[in-house]
């Protein structure tokens, strides 16, 4: 195409492909291969500079805003229509429409939010639109400054990026009014660097090849140094602005050094059509591809288990097909917004023109028809993926799926893809108040705001004028996220405890603590190891009703650490109920299924492991599991009378994996005993239990929460609807029950609630 720069088109095309690949697979090393967003802003800067040289900045900015906002508004209209349809089909708190965020769906100067149901797959990638909008508005000022003092401007922007990241990482800035405000300002300063580099490149022309290669080589040790000194959360480059700056600059230098061969390749007949096509539809691809990713995943997940590698292939093919189909349907809006002739599709064969939209419509119609009316888990948002703890999707006794971190088997069950474009979580530093706290706090149920589970955003869910402290945090969170059955316990062990709920009378009552039961089972197992009754490294004993375990190479440690490779029974077809202990039936069924990996060959959360631990305890001691749990664990720490046992079935086998019942006071009492005082196991055994894998957050009876800079601040355990975590550095213990589940779309809100309660507790 005359007048076009093949090099710039190629850089943008590669960046778009890399973005789609990253959001499809969510594998952290992908972020180290071509820094996509810096490359896109570099291209934008180059093209903007050309336009500023020919037309007035006001005309240029108005033109670019029209090109950006019209496709964005179309996407927003469709996204809201989809969320509204979900609301009509399922009138639940998760599907409540985000009216408070509507203004940002029109003018995205702040990140727009979707409903809990969409789980971020529609809204979270829109941070890029927010950043692009701000930089377009600021571009005339940046362009003038770049013409006068380009080096000084770049130095100032780099320094601002460094300073903002350091302050954000240290947690010394609180941004409750605008969550992640510092991170978002850092986005602007970071990508402004590459926008300005595009300005400079447009004026100065080609960079000397030797200088570009030198810059690229220098970026390698610098990037490694930054990664070692301040490891990015989850190993993702995008989770550190400083690292992103270095990696983005390094890859840009590589591209500039190879400018001539890249331009030649982009001009070849086959590559030219692809490069031009992506360039004409880059915004549409970005806006719509995540919808294709999550829809494809839900369809492919129905086929699990699949032969090794087939899931990844199908997910990739489905994402490409779905994205192409959507872009074929809506992409012409980019042409209308740019006031240019529509992009022509090939005339022959006709099948090529018809396939994309038909395939896209069929794909999304099938998803809606199969998934929306008849969900297997009605409490789980349709688009939601299970919680990611340091890259692993943690499951629970509620039935959430889990993901293998490594694999050496012939079949796989697809892990839920990583929800795209999250800002990294960091801890807010909040010094403890000097005032002495009282030994008791008012019961929250006396200041509750609603009798029944309220709709989010309703008057009943709003905090009263007098609500403050912990109750105020709880009410505000409930108003924002609209969970059901929310009960919270907060304690400074040895000082005070507080139990609250947003509902009248909602703070009382007993409940199944679900997978938090595993902490009790693990404590019993480790005590029996200390007694010499169990061998943590030796072969497992024979258990009536189960196949020979010793020949499988399984050990008790592998079970406790979720390294056995035994699949989670939640992911399998339920076996036929027999006249035997349900745990035996369920474990036998899981042992007959394909392993997730060889014993010791990976780490994958599986409730089956703890069912088997319970059976091992019974086999070695000759006593019922509950006799051991109460006799060795609960009674010795004085909480036995606060606990009871739920009934069991093949659908809810309980045993060592779940089924203990208590109230919120019982949860806090057990948490104080084990997580703070390390009783009844002792310091040495607790160290073994709480040694967490940095990649999965899993230990031998505990798990970590919030893998922020500096490690896991919270240690404890979760269940499908429950959580119990202790922060040793601040002596804060938090227990929660959220009836509609703490995972899925609740990941970030859940961590937000825990951290807000911690900060408030330190002030009391």
From TrEMBL:
Keyword Membrane: yes
Segments forming domain Beta-lactamase-related: 480-736
Claim: Glycoprotein is one of the keywords in the record: no
SUPFAM superfamilies in the record: beta-lactamase/transpeptidase-like
GO molecular function, one term: acyltransferase activity, transferring groups other than amino-acyl groups
Domain Acyltransferase span(s) in chain numbering: 7-326
Keywords: Membrane, Transmembrane, Transmembrane helix
Stretches with biased composition (Polar residues): 435-448
Record region (Disordered): 404-468
Pfam family, one: Acyl_transf_3
Biased composition (Low complexity): 404-423
Transmembrane segments annotated in the record for this chain: 30-49, 70-89, 127-145, 152-169, 181-200, 212-230, 242-262, 283-304, 310-330, 350-372
PANTHER family attached to this UniProt entry: BETA-LACTAMASE-RELATED
Name of the protein in question: Unannotated protein
Organism for this UniProt entry: freshwater metagenome
């Amino acid at each position: 195409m005359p007048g076009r720069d093949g090099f710039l088109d190629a850089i943008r095309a590669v960046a778009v492909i890399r973005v789609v690949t990253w959001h499809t697979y969510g594998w952290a090393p992908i972020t180290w291969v071509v820094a996509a967003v810096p490359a896109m802003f570099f291209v934008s800067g180059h093209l903007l500079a050309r336009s500023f040289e020919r037309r007035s900045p006001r005309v240029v900015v108005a033109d670019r805003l029209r090109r950006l906002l019209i496709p964005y508004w179309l996407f927003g209209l469709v996204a809201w229509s989809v969320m509204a349809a979900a609301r009509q089909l399922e009138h639940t708190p998760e599907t409540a429409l985000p009216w408070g965020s509507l203004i940002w769906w029109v003018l995205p100067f702040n990140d727009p939010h979707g409903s809990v149901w969409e789980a971020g797959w529609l809204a979270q990638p829109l941070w890029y639109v927010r950043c692009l909008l701000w930089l377009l508005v600021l571009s005339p000022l940046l362009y003038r400054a770049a013409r006068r003092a380009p080096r000084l401007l770049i130095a100032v922007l780099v320094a601002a990026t460094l300073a903002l990241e350091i302050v954000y990482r240290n947690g010394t800035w609180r941004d409750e009014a605008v969550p992640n405000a510092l991170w978002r300002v850092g986005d602007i300063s970071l990508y402004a660097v590459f926008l300005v580099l595009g300005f400079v490149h447009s004026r100065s022309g080609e960079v000397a090849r030797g200088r570009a290669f030198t810059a690229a080589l220098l970026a390698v040790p610098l990037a490694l140094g930054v990664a070692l000194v301040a490891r990015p959360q989850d190993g993702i480059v995008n989770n550190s602005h400083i690292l992103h700056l270095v990696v983005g600059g390094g890859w840009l230098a590589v591209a500039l050094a190879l400018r001539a061969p890249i331009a030649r390749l982009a001009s070849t007949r086959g590559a030219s059509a692809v490069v031009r096509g992506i360039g004409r539809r880059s915004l549409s691809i970005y806006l719509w591809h995540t919808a294709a990713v999550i829809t494809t995943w839900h369809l492919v997940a129905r086929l699990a288990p699949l032969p090794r590698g087939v899931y990844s292939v199908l997910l990739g093919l489905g994402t490409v097909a779905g994205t192409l189909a959507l872009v074929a349907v809506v992409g012409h809006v980019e042409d209308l917004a740019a006031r240019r002739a529509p992009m022509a599709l090939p005339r022959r064969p006709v099948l090529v023109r018809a396939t994309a939209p038909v395939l896209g419509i069929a794909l999304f119609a099938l998803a809606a028809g199969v998934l929306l009316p008849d969900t297997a888990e009605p409490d789980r948002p349709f688009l939601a993926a299970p919680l990611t703890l340091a890259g692993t999707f943690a499951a629970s006794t509620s039935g959430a799926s889990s993901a293998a971190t490594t694999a050496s088997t012939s079949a796989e069950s697809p892990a839920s893809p990583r929800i795209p474009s999250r800002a990294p979580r960091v801890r807010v530093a909040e010094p403890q108040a000097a005032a002495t706290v009282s030994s008791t706090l008012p019961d929250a149920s006396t200041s509750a705001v609603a009798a029944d589970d309220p709709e989010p955003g309703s008057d009943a869910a709003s905090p009263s004028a007098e609500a403050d402290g912990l109750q105020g945090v709880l009410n505000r969170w409930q108003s924002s996220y609209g969970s059901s059955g929310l009960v919270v316990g907060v304690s400074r062990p040895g000082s005070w405890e507080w139990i609250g709920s947003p509902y009248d009378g909602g703070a009382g009552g007993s409940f199944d603590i679900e997978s938090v039961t595993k902490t009790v089972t693990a404590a019993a197992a480790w005590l029996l190891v200390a007694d010499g009754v169990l061998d943590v490294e030796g072969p497992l004993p024979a258990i009536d009703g189960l196949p020979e375990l010793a020949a499988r190479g399984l050990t008790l440690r592998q079970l406790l650490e979720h390294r056995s490779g035994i699949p989670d029974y939640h992911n399998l077809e339920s076996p036929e109920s027999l006249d035997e202990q349900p745990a035996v039936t369920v474990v036998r069924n899981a042992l007959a299924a394909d392993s997730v990996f060889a014993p010791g060959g990976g780490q994958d959360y599986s409730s089956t492991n703890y069912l088997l631990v319970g059976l091992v305890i019974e086999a070695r001691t000759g006593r019922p599991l509950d006799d051991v749990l109460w006799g060795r664990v609960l009674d010795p720490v004085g909480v036995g009378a606060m606990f009871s046992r739920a009934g069991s079935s093949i659908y809810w086998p309980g045993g060592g994996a779940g089924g203990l019942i208590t109230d919120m006071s019982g949860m806090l009492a057990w948490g104080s005993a084990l997580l703070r005082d390390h009783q009844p196991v002792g310091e040495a055994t607790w160290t073994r239990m709480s040694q967490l894998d940095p990649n999965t957050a899993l230990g031998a009876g505990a798990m970590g929460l919030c893998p922020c800079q500096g490690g896991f601040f919270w240690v404890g355990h979760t269940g499908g609807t429950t959580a119990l975590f202790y922060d040793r550095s601040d002596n804060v213990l938090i227990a929660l029950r959220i009836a509609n589940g703490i995972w899925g779309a609740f990941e970030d809100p859940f961590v937000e609630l825990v951290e807000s309660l911690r900060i408030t507790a330190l002030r009391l």
